[in-house]
């Protein structure tokens, strides 16, 4: 997978949206929201204008028109260029063909799970499983309704999301079962890690005793004056 000039997924979403027809940034945002792309792409509408400007800077989009209606501010309409179509095609091909390492926050939590006691983890996972099952039920219902009005091509990301939630729920369910039954390999060591160990006794702090006096300070006698400093 080659390094791209722009790597923000929002830039790719803008390119594919402009592939439909030229639009001004506000219309791009409305189209992304209407087509449900905000459920699969993290869209920061506040940075949309910056993304469009960066696409124009690299020659992937260009100004095709400037609209003005009544007293409203001018709206700059952008269209995708031939270079933009090529970039979008290559970018999409890379994303579909090459698995990329992602860092889900739940995976991070699992990698650090040992800091919690197994007895604490079990109810937390049960709570997560309940939430996942609610999401699965609502996701299935929503998909069934969408199938009635939209071709499946426009719902594949929803299918993928649902399958990923189902897969996570299956894994959590199995791990939770091992945890509650005590059959998870290494669970005894895990529990022992949280058991308080014997306190280390270092013994009482030894006192150095009273400071020994060395006797009175001997006086060396009065300081002898050498007389006034003689000027040369």
Could you describe the largest sheet, including whether it forms a barrel? 2 strands, antiparallel
Shape descriptor reads elongated
Measured between the Cα atoms of the first and last residue, the distance is 88 Å
Number of strands: 2
SSE arrangement:
Layout: H1 9-18, H2 25-34, H3 48-57, E1 61-67, E2 75-80, H4 82-97, H5 105-111, H6 118-147, H7 156-181, H8 187-193
Overview of the structural elements:
The protein is mostly helical and 232 residues long. 50% of the residues lie in helices and 6% in strands. The protein contains eight helices and two strands. It has helices at 9-18, 25-34, 48-57, 82-97, 105-111, 118-147, 156-181, 187-193; strands spanning 61-67, 75-80. The chain has a two-stranded antiparallel sheet with strand order 1-2. A hairpin with a 7-residue loop joins β1 (61-67) and β2. The chain is elongated. The N and C termini lie far apart (88 Å). Residues 200-208 and 216-232 have low confidence and may be disordered.
Structure at a glance:
This protein has eight helices and two strands. The protein has 232 residues and is mostly helical.
What attributes characterize this protein structure?
mainly alpha; 8 helices; disordered C terminus
């Amino acid at each position: 997978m080659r390094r791209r000039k722009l790597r923000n997924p929002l830039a790719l979403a803008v390119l594919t949206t402009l592939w439909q027809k030229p639009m001004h940034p506000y219309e791009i945002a409305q189209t992304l929201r209407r087509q449900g792309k905000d459920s699969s792409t993290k869209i920061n509408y506040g940075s949309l204008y910056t993304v469009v400007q960066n696409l124009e800077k690299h020659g992937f989009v260009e100004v095709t028109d400037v609209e003005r209606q009544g007293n409203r501010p001018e709206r700059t309409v952008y269209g995708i260029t031939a270079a933009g179509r090529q970039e979008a095609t290559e970018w999409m091909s890379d994303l579909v063909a090459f698995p990329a390492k992602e860092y889900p926050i739940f995976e991070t939590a699992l990698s650090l799970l040992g800091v919690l006691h197994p007895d604490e983890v079990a109810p937390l996972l049960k709570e997560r499983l309940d939430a996942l099952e609610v999401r699965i039920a609502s996701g299935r219902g929503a998909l069934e309704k969408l199938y009635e009005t939209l071709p499946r091509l426009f719902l594949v990301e929803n299918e993928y999301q649902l399958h990923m939630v189902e897969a996570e729920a299956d894994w959590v369910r199995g791990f939770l079962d091992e945890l509650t039954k005590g059959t998870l390999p290494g669970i005894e060591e895990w529990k022992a890690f949280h058991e308080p160990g014997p306190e280390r006794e270092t013994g009482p702090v030894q006192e150095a005793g009273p400071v020994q006096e060395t006797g009175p300070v001997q006086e060396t006698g009065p300081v002898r004056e050498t007389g006034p400093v003689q000027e040369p």
